[in-house]
Known about the structure:
By secondary structure, the protein is mostly beta strands. It is built from 2 helices and 10 strands, in the order αβββββαβββββ. The protein starts with a helix and ends with a strand.
Amino acid sequence: MKKILLASALAGLTATASLAAPEKYTLDPGHSQVVFSYNHLGYSTTTGMFSGFEGEIMFDQEAPANSSVSVSMPLSSMLTGWQARFDHFMSKDFFEATEEEQITFTSTDIKVTGENTAEITGDFTLNGVTKSVVLDATLNQAGNHPMAGKPWAGFDATTTLVRSDYGLEKFAPYVSDEVAVMISIEAMKAE
């Protein structure tokens, strides 16, 4: 009888451990950025960046497919390196954006593709248009941060957006319709 009770208890512990819930992580705004680039008339590759944005990851390190991510950033926080370019992007030629307009991404599915890689599918909203986007993501590292002394995780991801899908086709194809996006984020376990 004791053996049966012990076996039942161990089975219960194993089942509980395998059902561990994802843990909440918040983005480190000082070490998270989205860099975008596009071809300008065949002469150059022009880049811009977003940084200092907010987001949340529900991270299940043991079963990454159970994780999720949600990020938002003000369109007005775009960094172009040149005020005239920023002003043109905010004009009626492109966004004609308000200060409050947000870019958002909310994951809908995560497919693990390797030991530290996954495809993260999600709803991406830009310029009032929402489309499904797939991010090719890599877990760079997860563990205790050497200075903060608490759990931390870092990820890189890439995707390509077609700007005309979002009503931003001005000057295409001379200015490329495809925009390469590179994402690098750090996130800390929430208190």
